[in-house]
Automatic annotation (TrEMBL):
Transmembrane segments: none
Protein source organism: Streptomyces monashensis
SMART domains named in the record: Elp3
A GO CC term assigned to this protein in UniProt: cytoplasm
Highest taxon of the lineage: Bacteria
GO terms (BP aspect): porphyrin-containing compound biosynthetic process
The protein, known as: Heme chaperone HemW
PANTHER family listed in its UniProt record: COPROPORPHYRINIGEN III OXIDASE, RADICAL S-ADENOSYL METHIONINE DOMAIN-CONTAINING PROTEIN 1, MITOCHONDRIAL
Gene Ontology molecular function terms on file: 4 iron, 4 sulfur cluster binding; catalytic activity
Pfam families found in the cross-reference section: Radical_SAM
Cited InterPro entries: Coproporphyrinogen-III_oxidase, Elp3/MiaA/NifB-like_rSAM, rSAM, rSAM_horseshoe, rSAM_sf
Amino acid sequence: MSAIREDLERHIEQGVIPPFNYAYPSRSAYRPLNGAWNIQEIWAEDLKRHPVPELNLYLHVPFCRYKCGFCNLYTVISEDMDVYDAYMDALCTQIRDHTEIIQRRRLRTIYIGGGTPSLLSLRHFTQLFETLDDIYPNWRSTVEEVAIEATPDSIVKEPDTLEGLISMGLTRANIGIQSLVPAEIREAGRGQANERVIRRAIDTIRDRQLPNLSTDLIMGFAGQTKESWRHSVDELVALAPETISTYFLTVRPDAWFSKTGAYQYMMSPDLYERYDYANAAFREAGYTQESNVRYKKLGRGGYQQKVLTFHGVPLLGLGAGARSYTSSVDYMVGSVKPSLTEVADYIDKAKNHELTPVTGFVLDDEEIIRKRLVLDTFDLDLNELNRFGYREKAHLFEPVITAAEEVGLLRRLPTDRVQLTPEGFKYRDILSWMFFSDNVINLDREYYAGLHRNNKRAQKHMGSEPLSISGLKTSTA
């Protein structure tokens, strides 16, 4: 039996729960680029590698009313409308500075993430969409999805903003629910999003006839029980959103809960039983599984930008804290540490057309192949990877694929297409880590070790070591 198969079987038997892999390499592997690349060079190189030029557009709005204790995203607390005005001016300037990059590709999706972009006023979104109209006039004809992140309380407080967004082309809203048990919501620092507000927000979205309501639940909150989890699942099924995501709670070292050590969450193999319950409940209610974390109503729900990004369609991320994913360099134009000072720096540099890649990860052919294997084994034609030298490098990856087949996580079709089995969906993140390169593993270890040391200085006791890639993978491909 191969060492890789032994590792897979052991991790599954132990019920290891690694963080959800939604990007490769992860932000923890980014390092200063020191001026070695400019934006035009990155996207020109990317264009050479894609026979069909397409693009996902991600627009980041970092502002929130409050910071959730488990959140490690690029967010800052502000409700200052003057700051919002300056930020939207900067974002629209940055969009115009990328006109040629956008125009040379078919625009497939637009996602306005955060933060809580629904805090912006309708005039901000009018300015944003008018900018898109100017540089890509027919975007409504090519784009398959226009999405925004929102909190339940922001929907309830500003229903006219939602209505205006729908008239401009919005097709999906992601509203963070996390739980439908009041005590769990409060413990997570989401007191503003109580169950009454959540239900009112969903009613508001239904009244406006938004095509795709996307919601989420989290497994592993402090105090969550098997019964309380089942209550949240059953209640959400009754509310019938088009898209549902379920995540295992991961409190990373740069989240507030880890910095303070004040929150002890559940990280137990028993959580896979909660996965099983949700999976069965959603399927019985007519949902189909789109990924290991997401379920959708056929023909109505889903998260198209994520699906396309996993398939290798590049993503242009604009705004403070946004990441861009290409086949040449994944990068950010600013610091990974959010602050109002950093946002002000972004605004100044955007206004003066001075934004440039600051930190990132340069991808060679091997890392491009790894990226697709990490993200896209739900349904991947390995022949697509031959242009990056898969046949010559197969010895690096085939042992993992073979072990996954033997364990029952993957099936390989005669045409060299690989697909996850139902068990593969369940343990997808365990399998994904096995495709990480040693370089990315070491960079991840170094990054999180530094964060952990800083947290130890700030508190006397830390409940547990952060889970990094190096904490899971013991054999390399």
